[in-house]
Design brief:
The protein is about 50% helix and about 15% strand. The chain is an alpha/beta fold and about 325 residues long.
Length: about 325
């Protein structure tokens, strides 16, 4: 199949994907789209929302539709790195055998990731970046495709461990889930309080997802689009010459080069699923908020004056 034919196939199947997911997940179209885009780019996503907004159901449904293995890890204060990665045990023959942990799956749901101490959070770092883990000096490759979709509750901060900037930067997207509209909530209640269960069909498998990731990377990008993405990221750095007055006044820290890379990758995927063979500036703008929002740090002045990260990103676009 030629690359042009592959993009046309992706456009068709993407609509089928959305329809299948829509049987179970009502509303949350933006969250669904960004999660799928991150998977097509080979990136990880952080889902932020109050309890009851179907974060876990969304991840479970997406794994079913994509035909991928799914494991859920409930992050708690007493969770140990070995609970995620696995550990070596002494078998009946008095030989050490490695028992794989839940990280050995295509999609890993890290539920309430900020409830576990930094030592355990860091256990995910190598897996997310290198697609491999090291246990007792032995190196184990993870099966591809591999994605971490983590959830975080923005309300309760007591007894939580905020994710360090280095780990936040590993997430391609930070996706906010909003409350449903009145009509959407009515449909949710109808669907979830009856005995009828929606059946969804798998649209892809693991090999096809890897092929899509390779296709996305082949998509050409004009130099002016790359320069636009890099310029936006540069403007988020308060000490940069290009920084705006708003950035200098309200930000302590800006985004790093990984943000520029992710902007272009996500713009390619956004263009492909919308029927374009090369991304333009509009595609970069469409993915800028979820890519930049967790990579820039507000100062106390911004907090005091009620300036949000979204306000600052909007001013840059």
């Amino acid at each position: 199949m030629s690359d042009v034919a592959a993009v046309k196939d992706l456009i068709h199947k993407y609509k089928v994907l959305q329809d299948e997911i829509g049987k179970v997940i009502i509303g949350q179209k933006e969250a669904v789209n960004f999660t799928l885009l991150s998977i097509f780019c080979g990136g990880h996503s952080l889902l932020i929302g109050v309890p009851g907004l179907a974060k876990t159901l969304l991840v479970n449904t997406i794994s079913d539709v994509l035909g991928l293995n799914f494991k859920r890890i409930q992050f708690t204060p007493d969770l140990m790195p070995s609970d995620i990665l696995g550990s070596e045990i002494l078998d009946q023959n008095r030989q050490f055998t490695f028992v794989k942990g839940p990280i050995f799956s295509n999609i890993v749901l890290a539920d309430e990731i900020n409830r576990t101490p930094p030592k355990t959070q860091a256990a995910l770092l190598e897996a997310m970046q290198e697609k491999s883990v090291t246990v007792a000096g032995n190196h184990y490759k993870l099966a591809l495709p591999f994605f971490v979709l983590a959830t975080q509750n923005p309300i309760e901060q007591e007894g939580t461990y905020p994710l360090p900037e280095a780990q936040l930067d590993r997430f391609m997207f930070s996706i906010n889930l909003e409350y449903p509209s009145f009509r959407e909530e009515v449909a949710v209640v109808k669907n979830t309080t009856s005995s009828i269960k929606q059946k969804i069909q798998s649209v892809y498998n693991g090999e096809e997802i890897i092929a899509i990731q390779q296709l996305i990377r082949k998509i050409p990008v004009a130099d002016n689009v790359i320069e636009y993405a890099v310029r936006i990221v540069g403007k988020t750095r308060p000490k940069s010459e290009e920084a705006t007055e708003m950035v200098k006044s309200y930000l302590d820290w800006g985004a790093g080069p990984r943000a520029s890379q992710n902007l272009i990758l996500a713009a390619k995927a956004h263009a492909a699923v919308n029927g374009k063979y090369s991304p333009d500036i509009e595609d970069v703008q469409a993915v800028a908020v979820p890519i930049l929002s967790h990579r820039i740090v507000k100062n106390y002045k911004a907090e005091a004056e009620g300036i949000t990260i979204a306000n600052i990103i909007a001013s840059l676009l």
